[in-house]
Amino acid sequence: MLSVVRRKAATGALSALIFGKSVHKIRPAVSTRVFPEEIMHYPRGFKHARTFYHLPSAEGSMSMSPIREVGYLQHDANMQIWSRSFCSSGEGDLVEAVVPHMGESITDGTLAAFLKKPGDRVEVDEPIAQVETDKVTIDVNSPEAGVIQKFIAKEGDTVEPGTKIAVISKSGEGVTHVAPSDEKPSEKAAPSPLPPAEEKEKPKPKVETTSMAEKAKESSLPPKSSATEPQLPPKEKERRVPMTRLRKRVAARLKDSQNTFALLTTFNEVDMTNLMKLRSDYKDAFVEKHGVKLGLMSGFVKAAVSALQNQPIVNAVIDGDDIIYRDYVDISIAVGTPKGLVVPVLRNAGSMNFAEVEKEINTLAKKATDGTISIDEMAGGTFTISNGGVYGSLLSTPIINPPQSAILGMHSIVNRPMVVGGNIVPRPMMFIALTYDHRLIDGREAVFFLRRIKDVVEDPRRLLLDI
């Protein structure tokens, strides 16, 4: 009811201030000289302000009478009456960390883990939590430097952009430090001993008879299982963990690919002798000039670009009752990460040289492994290359990455006896596989495409001569 209070009292004085009620008895604790208290107030809805004073008497009674009228105060009906708790921190001391925008096609995510704990110090833009989406993992950063006061959300919650997950105190005041989980309260450490009276009243256990002991012994024996009953492993040796959003998204897309496309795979084998010799001869000069190692993937990317240009139907896609032909080549590179499979895209791969391809692949692979790759870096793509050979796969049938129409699978390089010029010689050989949508691509185009890959990889000079 009151907006301004001014108190003037000596140390040790005892006074009481009560509004709207009468004071009957107030006994002062000590006999000291008491100064009057001056109070200026204006009731809500009135237009005059008055100043009162009150003075406790020796008998404990209190008198309150006006001493002056301050004047006329304009009352505004739109004026807001507000209050705030008295604390040392300022009004804007607390800030909230919210989930950022996660991409055009992503509406929510799962709060995977907190990177900090309540009471930890954080800096501006320092990650405090990670949100796992269908495609990437996004960091939630601190908007201000301060100390984490508390968490609003919990791990495993489904959050949307703008969801508040933590409160940060810029001054670090009012922060409750969480005790370690291994600490146990002292109250539960040991039970209090019983009084002597209760100990006497506690009945003594009766000695079991021989028949009761025998029954207990028989009941403790494990039941005899029949010979035909299967012996299943105990449930204690099993672990149940929820699937990550990325894993669920990959599973759904691959299953949709099987349900939608007419999948068919064709195979061939490639002699890697010339491409490996090219890398061995120029690897030092390549690193010295471009600052990146020359790998085999750049050779297959350039071979895939050439094959897509020769067979444009492989670069096309079905859209309803139409076929969309793309006059550009964006090649997706499948990268396996601890959290799942991601497919970053090489934009305009047809205009890249070997060095640019290697640099871009290294950059995208590092981002994918660190979990910092963005949605834009994985969107689109007209054709996919999957290299299972890095894990030792000898032969496989890859599944198309929707909405693309084909995928190339690379495998491990194995020395095998081959007939060259009428002689049996060892050669480094690799199986390659092309899985394609048979609704759009016929076997003729698929075989010609894979043969072009084989010709370019076995003789990289064809790229220079365009033959």
Observed structural traits:
about 475 residues; alpha+beta; four-stranded antiparallel sheet; about 20% helix
Topology overview:
Elements: E1 37-41, E2 48-56, E3 62-72, E4 94-98, E5 109-114, E6 121-122, E7 127-132, E8 137-141, E9 146-151, E10 158-159, E11 164-169, H1 196-201, H2 210-220, H3 245-260, E12 263-271, H4 273-290, H5 297-310, E13 317-319, E14 322-324, E15 331-333, E16 335-337, E17 340-342, E18 345-346, H6 354-370, E19 383-387, E20 406-420, E21 423-437, H7 443-458, H8 461-465
Parallel strand pairs: 15-19, 19-20
Antiparallel strand pairs: 1-2, 2-3, 4-11, 5-7, 5-10, 6-9, 7-8, 9-11, 12-21, 13-14, 15-18, 16-17, 20-21
Describe the protein's architecture and organization.
With 467 residues, the protein is an alpha+beta fold. Helices cover 22% and strands 27% of the residues. The chain contains eight helices and 21 strands. The chain has helices at residues 196-201, 210-220, 245-260, 273-290, 297-310, 354-370, 443-458, 461-465, and strands spanning 37-41, 48-56, 62-72, 94-98, 109-114, 121-122, 127-132, 137-141, 146-151, 158-159, 164-169, 263-271, 317-319, 322-324, 331-333, 335-337, 340-342, 345-346, 383-387, 406-420, 423-437. It has a six-stranded mixed β-sheet with strand order 12-21-20-19-15-18. Strand 2 (48-56) and strand 3 (62-72) form a beta hairpin. Helix 5 (297-310) crosses helix 6 (354-370) and helix 5 (297-310) packs across helix 7. The longest helix has 18 residues, at 273-290. The radius of gyration is 39 Å and the shape is globular. The chain starts with 36 loop residues before the first strand and ends with a helix. The relative contact order is 0.09. Residues 1-91, 178-191 and 196-200 have low confidence and may be disordered.
